[in-house]
């Protein structure tokens, strides 16, 4: 008879984790739905101002060029020779997307032109230069 009392006491001492797991899954779903999925190039640049700036839809490839002419894609620094391969890879993931070049005010035109040419060589002709509104 003592064994039955001990087994009954163990059953009562166990904690039911099902409600806690339900709450955790609901919170997980909430944070996934409310999170913003914005692609970033990896660095902050001071974009030039333009009076004809327009918002761009379907942007999935961002290329940032810093004031020291470093090229950043997908939050990592890349060499100018690797720009074409990276754009081809990202364009294959979303063929309807566009390329936006975020060049710093102090960056060289040569670097911007090399990135633009690499995008065109990769088969992407929807290429834009990001600017700030005046």
From TrEMBL:
InterPro entries xrefs: ExbD (IPR003400)
Membrane topology (UniProt): Single-pass membrane protein; Single-pass type II membrane protein
Location in the cell: Cell membrane
GO molecular function, one term: transmembrane transporter activity
Transmembrane regions: 20-38
Keyword Protein transport belongs to the record: yes
One GO cellular component, as annotated: plasma membrane
Alphabetic keyword roster: Cell membrane, Membrane, Protein transport, Transmembrane, Transmembrane helix, Transport
Highest taxon of the lineage: Bacteria
GO BP terms, alphabetized: protein transport
Family label: Belongs to the ExbD/TolR family.
The protein, known as: Biopolymer transporter ExbD
């Amino acid at each position: 008879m003592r064994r039955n009392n001990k087994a009954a006491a163990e059953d009562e001492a166990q904690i039911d984790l099902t409600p806690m797991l339900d709450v955790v899954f609901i919170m997980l779903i909430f944070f996934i739905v409310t999170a913003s999925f914005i692609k970033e190039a990896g660095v902050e640049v001071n974009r030039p101002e333009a009076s004809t700036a327009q918002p761009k839809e379907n942007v999935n490839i961002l290329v940032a060029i810093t004031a020291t002419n470093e090229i950043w894609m997908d939050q990592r620094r890349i060499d100018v020779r690797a720009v074409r391969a990276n754009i081809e890879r990202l364009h294959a993931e979303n063929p309807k997307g566009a390329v936006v070049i975020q060049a710093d005010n102090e960056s060289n035109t040569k670097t911007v032109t090399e990135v633009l040419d690499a995008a065109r060589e990769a088969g992407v002709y929807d290429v834009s230069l990001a600017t700030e509104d005046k």
